[in-house]
Amino acid sequence: MMKFLNIRYMKKCAVVLLCIAFLAVLCSCGSNMNGTAVSSKAQTITVEESLESVLIEDEQETYYLFITTDGMNFNRYPYEGEEVSPEKLIDAIAAKTGWDLTLADTVTDGKGGMTVSFAKSCSIFSEHTDGQSEEFKVDDQKEMTAAVLGSVQKTLQYYAAPKDPDKVDIYFSGENDEPLKIEGILELPLEQPYAYEYWH
């Protein structure tokens, strides 16, 4: 009888030990699985963040020139400069078209957008259209004004807000913060952003 009890006791002990061992294995696996899950999740976040960073960086480094010869229809050209600013974008338009886009001052921020001040030497103030690239040639001062203002406006709008360019207002002025006035063609109030509708 005692021998039988000893055998049963030994069996119970063996079962208990097996259960303890099994639980230990489960805990170990659970720990590893959790560790793996956490590690995998962290890696995924890192990859996503890196991808987002690359996309944002790429978006920020991709700039375009939008050039028109009628103020309404635009062609898009990649900006190839190493540094970018409103002034450099305007210089790039001038270099590509042959238009004189000399500024009277740096482009300023405010009023929900930017203000561009042209110097008297700018092509919009001249009746002569010499020196233009054949690809972007316009015939007279009115066409030149529409082309210059439209090209600068669209380029700066996409520079400031590529996903929603129309929300950026672009103002134009002459030297010494005077209203932009081109005799017999166009007069823009300082407080009014430029719009193509001025021509209609």
Distance between the first and last residues' Cα: 114 Å
What oligomerization state is this entry in?
A: single chain
What fraction of residues sit in β-strands?
5-15%
Q: How would you write the strand order of the largest sheet?
A: 3-4-5
Uncertain segments are: 1-12, 29-58
Mean pLDDT: 78
Could you give the order of the helices and strands?
HEEHEEHEEE
Topology:
Blueprint: H1 2-61, E1 64-68, E2 74-78, H2 86-97, E3 108-110, E4 113-117, H3 141-160, E5 169-173, E6 180-182, E7 186-188
Describe the structure.
By secondary structure, the protein is α+β, with helices and mostly antiparallel strands. Helix content is 46%, strand content 14%. The protein has 3 helices and 7 strands; from the N terminus they run αββαββαβββ. The strands form 3 sheets. A 3-stranded mixed β-sheet has the order 3-4-5, with helices on one face. Strands 1-2 form a two-stranded antiparallel sheet. A hairpin with a 5-residue loop joins β1 and β2. The protein is globular and about 40 Å long. The model is unreliable at 1-12 and 29-58 (pLDDT under 50).
